[in-house]
Amino acid sequence: MENFICVQCGTQFAESASPPPRCPICEDARQFVRHGGQAWTTLERLAADHHNRFADEAPQLRGIGTEPEFAIGQRALLLQSPGGNLLWDCITLLDNKTITEVNLRGGIRAIAISHPHFYSGMVEWADRFDAQIFLHAQDRQWVMRPSPRIQFWEATTLPLWDGLTLINCGGHFEGGTVLHWPADARGHGGLLTSDILTVVQDRRFVSFMRSYPNLIPLRPAAIHRIVETLDPFPFDQIYGGWWKANVLVNAKAAVRESAQRYLRAISE
After folding, report:
1. I need a surface site. Which of 76, 120, 145, 169 has the fewest CB within 10 A?
2. What are phi and psi for residue 101, nearest 5 degrees?
3. In 10 A of CB 53, how many CB atoms?
4. How far is 131 from 250, CA to CA, in rounded Å?
């Protein structure tokens, strides 16, 4: 029995004797099945020719990403906090070097994930670090490896510890979630967004999509909801889902201006 992993999206599935017949996450309109057809790997095979890279994105915020690039190429963020470390989003590969690196920084109290494209190896990580997983209940159907460690939450916000707050913005996925970090190292508040709000190439703006690879836009109501939901929270930085995909000054104004720009573009 193996926990097979989808090569395209990096999601690890429940144990089975043979690879699953399909990956529902990749067959959804927001993702895609690889051009060569559905393919599978395992954690052991992945570790044979991949490794994880570690680099600070900010003080107390350690990025972890896999090289060579695997699946959609995201990096996770280990947020170090006095009440316990939070792993924001997740990657598939977990090896001994990664375990040692994380433990040197205090381990993981909990894992919180923005949306199903980043579920990846979340249960593997949670089991190894004895951590809880926080997922929004609206994305329950996309969990391919169930676990009692998963806590589904249903409100618009979920307070954690040390002022950390999960915020359900919707948009890209109905359960799409961001993390507010009030005590970020610069002292003005940070927002960890994955691609619920994706940082664009000039890193002065963000954008919003139903599907990024298939270029499906969001409706105006979804954009208004994101902006209104974030309005009560102060933040000056945004940390996106990929290396250096960050807005490091005036991030809250950037969100408002980005939303206005987006709404103008789809209404003209």
Report:
1. 145
2. -60, -45
3. 11
4. 33
State how far the Cα of 161 lies from the Cα of 175, in Å rounded to an integer: 21
3-state secondary structure of 67: strand
Round to whole Å and give the CA distance between 243 and 91.
Answer: 13
CA distance 205 to 249: 11
pLDDT tens digits for range 24-83: 999 999 999 999 999 999 999 999 999 999 999 999 999 999 999 999 999 999 999 999
Q: What is the tens place of the pLDDT at every residue in 123-139?
A: 999 999 999 999 999 99
What is the phi/psi pair of residue 14, to 5°? -60, 160
Question: Are the C-beta atoms of 245 and 199 separated by less than 8 Å?
Answer: yes
Q: What is the pLDDT of residue 185?
A: 60
Within 8 A by CB and 6+ apart from 119, the residues are 11, 25, 90, 113, 135, 142, 143, 144
Query: How many Å apart are CA 6 and CA 3, to the nearest integer?
Result: 10
Instruction: State how far the Cα of 32 lies from the Cα of 9, in Å rounded to an integer.
Output: 9
CA distance 150 to 96: 23
Q: Angle of helix 251-267 relative to helix 220-230, nearest 10 degrees?
A: 170
Over residues 20-35, the pLDDT tens digits come to 999 999 999 999 999 9
Cα-based angle 93, 95, 96 (whole degrees, multiple of 5)? 165
Domains and CATH numbers, the chain: 5-33+51-267 (3.60.15.10)
CA distance 8 to 71: 5
Contact 208, 172 (CB under 8 A): yes
